Automatic annotation (TrEMBL), chain A:
One of its GO terms (biological process) is transmembrane transport. Gene3D superfamilies: MetI-like. Residues 73-274 form the ABC transmembrane type-1 domain. CDD domains: TM_PBP2. This is ABC transporter permease. It comes from Paenibacillus agaridevorans. The lineage of its organism: Bacteria, Bacillati, Bacillota, Bacilli, Bacillales.
Automatic annotation (TrEMBL), chain B:
InterPro entries: Bact_solute-bd_prot1 (IPR050490), SBP (IPR006059). It comes from Paenibacillus agaridevorans. PANTHER family: ARABINOSE-BINDING PROTEIN-RELATED, DIACETYLCHITOBIOSE BINDING PROTEIN DASA. Residues 1-23 form the signal peptide. Keywords: Signal. It holds the Pfam family SBP_bac_1. This is ABC transporter substrate-binding protein.
UniProtKB/TrEMBL annotation, chain C:
The keyword Transmembrane applies. InterPro entries: MetI-like, MetI-like_sf, UgpAE/MalFG_permease. This is ABC transmembrane type-1 domain-containing protein. It comes from Paenibacillus agaridevorans. It is a multi-pass membrane protein. Residues 91-306 form the ABC transmembrane type-1 domain.
């Protein structure tokens, strides 16, 4: 491709800016990892910046052996996988009809969904509904309670709408039913957004905290966020510590904090490339059309 | 609702009728324990909330089921099902449980405001008629009438079970003795002397590195409250004519002091942004702070042993001592203390079997049972040292098997069992730990100064809960006043402390503060007998020493 | 091949034609409504049913009486809330911060996405994109710590640099204007990478042949972005903008709470932190519900206005 000098300059400029921004984004994590493997004294004294001082991995040992983290990790995976699949299904099934112009009552239904983004019943009424449906202490309370994010659903709907009308229409002339139209034409064309929303739901379920606190009673069903957040909030709260007056274990809270963040993020980083390929490269719409 | 009340009344009547027969059996519980194997199917079942701190190793089980819940259920006269409640979100979780009628029978929570709200919403069971099933607690009530005073609600009935805590300070100033020595200074006795010492700590290069990089003290996060307590500036105090009044004069003096600290650079200029005090602590550990005011001391061992070891890694010659509150123009005050009478436990009004609940509480607070739940099994987790106190055999093992189990006995009064007192954590054969213990003892002695007053109307856990319209007024005024005070400190010469107090008073008047004053005084008048105020706190903790 | 009325033929009566379309539309609608069943059930059960609980804004809610039997108090809680200027100031602060957030924060991910789109080396693009998505996973406590290291008066990186150039230290965190800038900036930094993903996905649906032909016509990068890229993602931008306007009454609690300090409270106290402080001493269910209801109404008005505006440009959401 030919590019003018101005264009080249422009592209170089963009590269520099982006690389600078990404450096600011990665440094905090380098710092956290360095903290987590440095010696307690060095961390207390604030000597650790981006390179570990006095290697010490005991906090990882503590994290995985003296806490329910491993069990909670498995639970997190179950919650995330189950929730993301159910949510994606429900979101696509809701967004698709709403994206069709010939749907009856399309606008009222869309508005009714949008309305719930602004008005919510609040913590206690929602809990009462869950309770009356006997969903408390099951993962269904998490999955059904957050089945559709209206935000995601509207984005999906808008993306479906952007699939060129001719493609859909020509398919319908070929005698395609709605289900086949969705499965064969619309979804394959929407892979980038499907991947994006899968990621959004996945991250949402992975980080799910308050719902688990409220709806899950059994410790053995808790997820990693609750375990990690729980530890961090207790560590950071003097008020609470003053009330509790526990003989707290000697554990450098900064280190534990760092481990918590690292352990929560790593799985997100591992999964990311698999979804990323869909929205970074995109699909060649033209090729399907032609 | 009516049905439940009715049945519980029935049970209560029945219980009363049987109480004479039962009394013998209950008192002789320790014998009953061994002989109850056959009765195990007839055990009543209750539910009990227990904090979940996310620190139970997966291999040990869960909050609901582990070696200690098994231990409890094997021996307790009732079958207990534990309901885990995440520590950090305990109130929220318990609220939804109460709202849906699924709250446990016994609710353990430290939050006074929360327990008060349960009382106001008629969710709590008055315990007076059931105390007979917990003779251990009855004994405690007789020994410490304060427990009854604090646990009694405005309707005159006893609702809360609580504990007596060890009489230690909530926080104490730590001063660099080596700096004092180097600069030929004395430990300051008054707030003016303190200012001079702090100035010297900043100006005269006490760490000898040739740079002016030291701070006198710190007041980020709650450390500012330590300064307030030197001046008795708490917001409320008891006036000479026995009314509850605002502490404007005290606050003015405190504000002037803080303003001086800020303007003369005796503290970190960024104290307002150091929101959890982490920066101040780091400065202290790096040997940059002369008088360290910890936001709160939750673990004396950490503050008097571990921290000092860390500090000595940087400054080997560092010497630290706790410092008594300097006398201020407003008088001599002691430090805040750990709440000596702390309420922890209430019983759900909807509990099906309050008798069983009380029996459970009785079981846990028996000294021999509490000892096991706090220290573990003798010979396995601890053995008696030469001084007669329990010594941990293997800290690693205890961290895995025991240390997370403290909440099962959270309503136990530790001073009741000399084997449990926290000073046993210090190993006096180790010089560092011996010094640490001496610091703790010295800090405790500060409480005994007979001239010193308590720096607050009461410990905040004993302050009354405001009704909702006053909560809003209070929050609004508090926000404005905080603005004003912050400006008063950092606002420079144009905005004096006097001006700040005048503005704060005006904001208080304008925002409806008078209504809060009225409420406080009505509360005081009506609850004089059960109010647990500063002098009561001092009286109790002094008697404990 | 397109079906136009002309192609169907003009001899049929309009009514019959209408009926034909109606039947066809009806038949098409059956599978669509079948698909909608789970969504509708979800919204009815988990979204609309709990909304009944909003009545507690007009009641003295307590556990003993429950939602339905608690005594009515009318507008009491709204009066408590709106009796003081503080509330008005807080609402104003909230709007102030969130409008600025929208003005500066909203375009940021779009710019990032478009910039990333210009990165031709796939490995670099992927790497940058992965990395800038990371801050989303940092809690605000940690970000507040970073802000303090950068902007504190003594020892803050920025002030150290200023000092080296002979400048006086600036109290960035304690002046309302610079605090707001830091507030907005930190929010942008934390979320722009994550939010950019949506736009990246939207960008991927643009036909690459458009760029090729534009390049052949000699259009520069900026012109291509203006004439091809932006129009390509316009529906997404407008949708997110309308939803963003609806959220103007919300400023995330954690962000403000962790960044604010007493000197900037005058500008930095917002609804969420205020409600938190009110609820600190005791849960105030009715009061917080009343505040929430008010927020919702303002949000509704804002969304409807934004949508009405968007409709003028034929981009309305509904």
């Amino acid at each position: 491709m030919r590019e003018s000098i101005g264009g080249k300059f422009f592209v170089t400029f963009i590269h520099i800016i982006l690389i600078l921004i990404s450096l600011t984004c990665i440094l905090p994590f380098v710092h956290l990892v360095a903290l987590s493997v440095s010696s307690g004294h060095a961390v207390d004294l604030g000597q650790v910046l981006f390179w570990p001082v006095g290697l010490d991995f005991t906090v990882y040992n503590y994290f995985f052996e003296n806490t329910p983290a491993l069990r909670a990790f498995t639970n997190s995976v179950i919650i995330t996988l189950g929730g993301t699949i159910l949510s994606m299904l429900a979101t696509v099934l809701t967004a698709y009809p709403l994206s069709r112009r010939y749907l009856y009552a399309r606008k009222p239904i869309t508005m009714a969904a949008l309305f719930t983004m602004l008005f919510g019943g609040g913590m206690i009424p929602t809990y009462l509904v869950m309770n009356s449906l006997h969903l408390i202490n099951t993962y269904w309370s998490l999955w059904l309670g957050g089945l559709i994010s209206t935000y995601n659903m509207l984005i999906m709907k808008s993306y479906f709408e952007s699939v060129p009308g001719e493609v859909a229409e020509s398919a319908q002339i070929d005698g395609c039913g709605e289900v086949r139209l969705l499965m064969r034409i619309i979804l394959p064309l929407s892979l980038p957004m499907l991947a994006t929303l899968t990621l959004f739901y996945g991250v949402g379920y992975w980080n799910m905290f308050m719902s688990v606190i409220l709806y899950i009673n059994e410790t053995s069903l808790q997820n990693l966020t609750v375990v990690v957040q729980g530890m961090l909030q207790i560590q950071g709260n003097f008020n609470m510590a003053a009330m509790d007056m526990m003989q707290q274990q000697e554990m450098v809270s900064e280190k534990l904090k760092a481990v918590g963040v690292v352990v929560m993020v790593v799985p997100m980083l591992v999964v990311y490339p698999f979804l990323q390929k869909y929205f970074v490269k995109g699909i060649m719409l033209g090729s399907i059309k032609g | 609702m009516f049905g439940q009340t009715f049945t519980s009344r029935m049970k209560f009547a029945l219980a009363l009728g049987l109480s004479a027969v039962m009394a013998a059996g209950v008192v002789g519980c320790s014998q009953a324990e061994t002989g109850t194997k056959g009765k195990s199917e007839r055990k009543a079942t209750i539910t009990v909330s227990n904090y979940d701190r996310g620190n139970i190793p997966a291999a040990e089980g869960t909050v609901e089921e582990n070696r200690w819940t098994k231990w409890i259920n094997e021996r307790s006269p009732v079958t207990v099902k534990f309901v885990p409640v995440a520590r950090a979100e305990a109130v929220r979780k318990l609220n939804v449980m109460f709202a849906s009628g699924s709250a446990p029978d016994i609710v353990n929570d430290y939050d006074t405001g929360f327990r008060n709200s349960l009382y106001q919403q008629k969710q709590l069971l008055p315990l007076d008629d059931y105390l007979q099933y917990a003779p251990e607690y009855q004994k405690l009530l007789e020994k410490y009438p304060q427990l009854r005073k604090v646990g009694t609600k405005p309707d005159g009935k006893l609702y809360e079970i609580g504990k007596i805590n060890e009489p230690h300070l909530q926080s104490v100033a730590f001063i660099r003795m080596d700096w004092l020595k180097k600069l030929n200074l004395e430990v300051p006795r008054t707030t003016d002397e303190l200012l001079d010492v702090l100035r010297a700590f900043v100006e005269q290069d006490p760490d000898g590195n040739g740079k002016k990089d030291t701070y006198g003290t710190n007041m980020s996060y709650t450390s500012g409250g330590m300064i307030d307590s030197m001046f008795g500036s708490y917001g409320w105090k008891l006036s000479d004519d026995d009314k509850i009044v605002r502490t404007w004069d005290n606050t003015l003096e405190s504000l002037k002091f803080k303003k001086t600290l800020f303007e003369e650079g005796l503290i970190d200029k960024d104290y307002l942004a150091d929101k959890n005090g982490a920066k101040a602590k780091q400065d202290y550990l790096n040997g940059k702070i002369g008088v360290f005011l910890p936001p709160a001391i939750t673990n004396w061992f950490e503050n008097t042993v571990t921290d000092i070891q860390t500090l000595r890694k940087v400054v080997p010659e560092a010497e630290i001592a706790p410092m008594e509150q300097p006398k201020s123009p407003m008088g001599q005050f002691v430090h805040h203390v750990v709440n000596p009478v702390q309420m922890t436990t209430v019983i759900n009004a909807a509990a099906k079997d309050p008798k069983a609940a009380m029996e459970y509480i009785n079981f846990i607070i028996k000294p021999e049972n509490a000892l096991i739940l706090k220290k573990g099994i003798e010979g396995e987790h601890w053995r008696k040292g030469e001084d007669g106190f329990p010594k941990v055999i293997d800290p690693e093992k205890n961290a895995k098997e025991l240390d997370w189990a403290m909440d099962y006995s959270m309503f136990y009064s530790i001073p009741e069992n000399p084997l449990l007192i926290s000073t046993t954590a210090f190993d006096v054969s180790d010089p560092d730990q011996k010094a640490g213990l001496e610091m703790l003892n010295k800090a405790d002695e500060f409480l005994l100064n007979p001239e010193a007053q308590y720096p607050a109307l009461s410990h905040y856990e004993h302050m009354p809960s405001l009704p909702s319209e006053l909560v809003v007024i209070n929050t609004n005024i508090d926000k404005e006043i905080q603005d004003i005070y912050a400006k008063g400190i950092i606002g420079g010469a144009q905005y004096t402390a006097e001006q700040a107090i005048a503005d704060a008073k005006a904001a208080w008047e304008k925002g409806g503060g008078k209504q809060i004053e009225e409420f406080m005084n009505t509360w005081y008048k009506e609850n004089k007998e059960i109010a647990f105020l500063g002098k009561d706190i001092l009286e109790l903790v002094r008697s404990q020493h | 091949m397109k079906i136009t009325p002309a192609a169907v033929g003009t001899d049929q009566a309009p009514a019959a034609k209408e009926a034909f379309y109606q039947t066809k539309r009806f038949r098409q609608n059956i599978p669509l409504f079948a698909m909608l069943i789970p969504g509708v059930l979800y919204y009815l059960i988990f979204r609309y049913a709990p909304m009944g609980g909003l009545v507690i804004a007009f009641k003295d809610y307590n556990f003993h009486d429950g939602i339905w039997s608690s005594p009515w108090v009318g507008w009491k809680y709204f009066e408590i809330l709106f009796q003081s200027n503080v509330t008005l100031q807080i609402i104003w602060n909230t709007l102030n911060l969130s409008v600025l957030n929208l003005v500066f924060g909203f375009p940021a991910p779009i710019i990032i996405a478009i910039a990333l789109n210009e990165v031709r080396k796939t490995w670099l693009k992927r790497w940058i994109q992965t990395v800038i998505y990371l801050p989303h996973f940092l809690s605000w406590v940690i970000v507040a710590g970073i802000v303090l290291t950068l902007f504190s008066i003594e020892g803050g990186t920025v002030n150290k640099l200023l000092g080296q150039w002979g400048g006086e230290p600036v109290p960035f965190l304690y002046r309302a204007d610079s605090w707001i800038a830091i507030f907005i900036g930190s929010g942008m930094w934390k979320e722009m990478g994550f939010s950019a993903i949506i736009y990246l996905a939207a960008l991927s649906s643009i036909d690459p042949s458009l760029y090729e032909s534009a390049g052949m016509d000699g259009a520069g990068k900026l012109r291509q972005i203006w004439h091809i890229t932006l129009p390509g993602i316009r529906p997404t931008i407008i949708l997110l903008l309308i939803l963003g306007v609806g959220r103007l009454m919300e400023v995330g609690f954690d962000q403000v709470y962790n960044l604010q300090n007493p000197t900037v409270l005058e500008k930095a106290e917002v609804i969420s932190t205020y409600v938190y402080k009110v609820g600190l001493q005791q849960a105030q269910f009715s009061l917080t519900t009343a505040m929430g209801l008010f927020e919702s109404f303002v949000g509704l008005v804002l969304v409807l206005s934004a949508n009405a505006l968007a409709r003028k440009f034929d981009q309305g959401l509904f």
